[in-house]
Amino acid sequence: MAENDTSQERTEEATPKRLQDAKSKGQVARSKELGTAAVLLAAAFGFLITGPSLALALDSVMTRLFTMTREQVFDTNHMLNIWQIVFAELAMPMLVFISILAVVSFVGNILLGGITFSSYAIMPKTSKMSPINGFKRMFGIQALVELGKGLAKFSVVAITAFTLLYIYFEEILSLSKEYMPGNLHHALDLLVWLFILLCSSILIIVLIDVPFQIWNHNKQLRMTKQEVKDEYKDTEGKPEVKGKVRQLQREMAQRRMMAEVPNADVIVVNPEHYAVAIKYDISRSSAPFVLAKGVDEVAFKIREIAREYEIPIVSAPPLARAIYHTTKIDQQVPEGLFTAVAQVLAYVFQLKQYQQGKGRRPTPIPFNQPIPDELKH
């Protein structure tokens, strides 16, 4: 049966937590080819931008160096001045070129995967020192992929270089027939565009490598169904723990509810299974509201507290069931039950008046006010 068990196959896409954990460990999709292509193209376009000023600086430097007299060559102070001038003239175009190269190389390497800082990635790992694991990496699928990319890059660059040399061969030979400094400008211009075209050929590899690295990264982070379930348990909490938390929350809410029962005006019961504690306080609400409610054991506890605090208990089964099923704690009773509740409260207030020695004892009446059909339970 084990061969038919697919629960351990990595068929599930990585969860957001799995992706975030991998990123915190420095495990993100990266394309070396994208970074290499960015650096090469930056160098090419940097030469294109700084080429004219660099050519003029080189022309000036070569003119100064090749026109020195014998006495100037052996004059230390003069040579120091010459080199200061050389550095001053070459500094600005070289600074611009290096700045372009630095910025583009940084952006090119974070374009896929973003910026990540992880101490985990630089920690020594014993698995990397294992000869067996080393052989697996050398002859594994990833090594074959890298070998294929290396051969592909070599082939693409070689074919592109041969094609460019074939196309521009006559123009390259004609440089020897030109004069300074025109041939220097021409050579630099030709070199830059050949370099740009040669570097652009790497984009073919990049267009293949970037989707592959994204796919390979997602594949490595795929999860089994069991891993997804375990992560859900760790994130959301184990069912038994969540059940215990909910039980504690219910107990706390029940204790708070029971603490409000002594403040009730009347307890409406069913007469055994349901119990609802009702309060009418004009300063708090324009209509009677529910302080506590419960069934069976909770209802018994509400009745017990009511007897302890001498709160009237009125049996009105339809009304008790209707209030219990339609009204939440601290919520006003529905408008359709106002008349029935008012009848109960009127009896209770008359009873309190009698207990205070004011008026006659009210005669118990059947609390049978009709309950709207939509409120019946």
Automatic annotation (TrEMBL):
Parts of the chain that traverse the membrane: 34-58, 94-122, 143-168, 190-215
Amino acid composition bias (Basic and acidic residues), ranges on this chain: 7-24
InterPro entries documented for this protein: FlhB, T3SS_substrate_exporter, T3SS_substrate_exporter_C
Keywords: Bacterial flagellum biogenesis, Bacterial flagellum protein export, Cell membrane, Cell projection, Cilium, Flagellum, Membrane, Protein transport, Transmembrane, Transmembrane helix, Transport
Region (Disordered): 1-26, 358-377
Keyword Aminoacyl-tRNA synthetase: no
Keyword Oxidoreductase assigned: no
Entry's family note: Belongs to the type III secretion exporter family.
Its job: Required for formation of the rod structure in the basal body of the flagellar apparatus. Together with FliI and FliH, may constitute the export apparatus of flagellin.
Full protein name: Flagellar biosynthetic protein FlhB
Taxon lineage: Bacteria, Pseudomonadati, Pseudomonadota, Gammaproteobacteria, Alteromonadales
Gene assigned in the entry: flhB
